[in-house]
C-alpha cells in the first residue's frame, strides 16, 4: 500500500469553511483506479492545520490521479479567499508496513 499525506495550515480565519468543503467534497477520487481510502483530520491543538491522508494500492495509481483533470476538478470547492501559511503546504509519501 502507498500513502500520501498532505498537510497545510490556514492563515486566515477559514478553518471551518475548509472543513465544511471537505465534508461536501465531490468525492471524485473515490472512483480513481487504485484508490482505497481518504481521511481528513485536524490536530485538536491546532485546528487551523489540516492533514489529508490518502491510501492507494500503489504509487503509480496515486501519480495517475494526481496528474488527472479530475484531480484538478476535485479542488473546485476550495473556499474563495483561503490563505495558507507560507511554506506550510507539504506532501509526504509513505510505504505501509503493517496494521
From TrEMBL:
PROSITE patterns registered for this protein in UniProt: ABM (PS51725)
Protein's UniProt keywords contain Cell inner membrane: no
Official protein name in the record = Antibiotic biosynthesis monooxygenase family protein
Q: Name one GO molecular function term.
A: monooxygenase activity
Q: Which UniProt keywords apply?
A: Monooxygenase, Oxidoreductase
EC number of this enzyme: 1.14.-.-
PANTHER family xrefs: SIGNAL TRANSDUCTION PROTEIN TRAP
Q: Where is the ABM domain?
A: 2-93
Quote the InterPro entries the UniProt record gives: ABM_dom (IPR007138), Dimeric_a/b-barrel (IPR011008), Heme-degrading_MO (IPR050404)
* Keyword Oxidoreductase among UniProt keywords: yes
What's the top EC group for this one? oxidoreductase
Q: What is the superkingdom listed in this entry's lineage?
A: Bacteria
Amino acid at each position: 500500500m502507498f500513502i500520501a499525506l498532505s498537510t497545510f495550515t490556514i492563515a486566515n480565519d477559514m478553518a471551518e469553511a475548509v472543513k465544511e468543503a471537505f465534508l461536501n467534497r465531490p468525492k471524485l477520487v473515490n472512483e480513481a483506479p487504485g484508490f482505497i481510502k481518504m481521511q481528513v483530520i485536524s490536530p485538536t491543538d491546532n485546528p487551523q492545520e489540516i492533514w489529508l491522508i490518502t491510501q492507494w494500492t500503489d504509487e503509480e495509481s496515486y501519480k495517475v490521479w494526481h496528474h488527472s483533470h479530475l484531480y484538478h476538478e476535485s479542488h473546485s470547492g476550495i473556499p474563495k479567499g483561503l490563505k495558507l501559511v507560507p511554506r506550510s503546504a507539504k506532501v509526504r509519501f509513505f510505504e505501509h508496513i503493517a496494521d
